[in-house]
Amino acid sequence: AIAPEEVVGQGRADAPCYLALYSVEGQSSAENAGFLLYQLATILSKNGIGSVPRSGSRPKTPLEDAKNMNLVMVLSAGLPAEELYRNPLEDIKRKPLDGICSNEDPTARQIVEYGRIAPSAGNCQPWYFAGDGGRIDMYTQLAGDAFNTSNTELKALDAGMACYGLYVAAKEMGRFAGFAIAEEEAAPPPKGYVYS
Q: How confident is the model at residue 149 (pLDDT cuts 50, 70, 90)?
């Protein structure tokens, strides 16, 4: 945990605590970090603690234990001043399931629904899901938007958060949830998207 006075940057907020997530560079490191961040945010919220990823924030000085790693994201956390939970399907604008999923399998569509409501930078929801049967392939948008989410690392974090949503849904349905990069087996990406 990092004290508020030790955090700087434009994404800083009034929060009593900050957590910094560092990672070694490597294939899917940002996606893994997004998966972990959403999992951590879920655990915090189950304990009555609100949290918000802060992409523009950073510790004033690098943490001693993270000198050979990259800062991925800072998460602000604390007891909320208002209601912690909101109904994301009513309070947050989401793309319709048919607009982000071409998989016709009913079980896969139920699982994708959890990915659809995952948080994303600026609520850009940069994902698209395809595949057939129990296989779900994920793609992310190439172009940026008003929130400047052309940042590929933020989109990778978003993809990781959506994957955590898929994982939770599959587990709740008693299904196996495994992740693999298998671009050569996937259908070609929709126009404006790349395989994630």
A: very low
CA-to-CA distance for 163 and 173, rounded, in angstroms?
Answer: 15
| Whole-prediction pTM | 0.87
Q: Which distant-in-sequence residues (6+ apart) come within 8 Å of 7 by Cβ?
A: 18, 54, 57, 58, 59, 60, 74
Q: Residues 5-44: pLDDT tens digits? A: 999 987 777 889 999 998 888 878 889 999 999 999 999 9
**What is the β-pairing status of strands 50-54 and 137-141?**
unpaired
Residue by residue, DSSP assigns 147-158 as: T-TT-HHHHHHH
